[in-house]
Amino acid sequence: MAQVEENTHTPAKKPPPMSILEVGGVPLPISSNEIWDKISKFEARPDDLILATYPKSGTTWMQEILDMIQNEGDVEKCKRAISLDRHPFIELTFPFKKKYDFEMALEMPSPRLLKTHLPSHLIPPSVWRQNCKIIYVARNAKDCLVSYYHYHRMTTLLPDPKSLEEFCQKFMSGEVAYGSWYDHVKGWWAAKDKHQILYLFYEDVKKNPKHEIHKVLEFLEKTLSEDVINKIIHHTSFDVMKKNPMANQSTVPSSIYDFTVSPFMRKGMPGDWKNHFTVAMNESFDKHFEKKMGETTLTFCV
């Protein structure tokens, strides 16, 4: 487990934002081509489970659900380390860690649960070669945008988002880390027809977690009792996770996450965008959304 200072909620000296490197037309928080070369050559294993998401689409939440499933509802095992250490990202690293996440992954025993925000066309080829199972979680674009905006506000890893209106324009044009939300969700939607991918929606998990957990269990070819499933639902509820220091990111140094600006786990409620969007923003966004998503079979809850 990485040694991290407790977030005292008092901002410390800020490190510089992450470096952004454009790869395959997508801006990624990667420091160099040399690092990207190592990431693209990452060796997946056949029993790896990959959790893929666009940023702020329920990654930490679904990770906790999957960890609970893999540990058959054992809460203490799921508190063995902070979420950032339990299941590393394929492509990311954090300033308080001594190693890149992919280096941590190489040292992990199988079976591994790994995370990624990469679009489908940038996933290391070994993931497809090994026919790894992948769970993708997609979230309503407007809620994703608002959550990403607040994340930008509270983390020193990413640039100051300025106003919500300015950030909305960048989000729509894909000028944010990991690029276009539209391309991301559509790319993974298309990939599900060729690979072992379970495509889930944030709003569905929120509305009926038991139903979606049963989907995951079937996909993973696992069986758990209803008591254990109910335990998982309770442990991974927003209110419980928000109080869990192994999941709520409160142990991340205050130089990285400034909780005086916003908690990492803020609201988690579908439809929060309605508290942020102006009428003009909403009209503009809807027109752009229709243009970008008009020809896909992919649909989202509003």
Automatic annotation (TrEMBL):
It holds the Pfam family Sulfotransfer_1. Keywords: Cytoplasm, Transferase. The keyword Ribonucleoprotein does not apply. Residues 46-296 form the Sulfotransferase domain. It comes from the Eukaryota. SUPFAM superfamilies: P-loop containing nucleoside triphosphate hydrolases. It is found in: Cytoplasm. Gene3D superfamilies: P-loop containing nucleotide triphosphate hydrolases. GO terms for molecular function: sulfotransferase activity. GO terms for cellular component: cytoplasm. Its EC number is 2.8.2.-. Belongs to the sulfotransferase 1 family. This is Sulfotransferase. The lineage of its organism: Eukaryota, Metazoa, Chordata, Craniata, Vertebrata. The gene is SULT1C3.
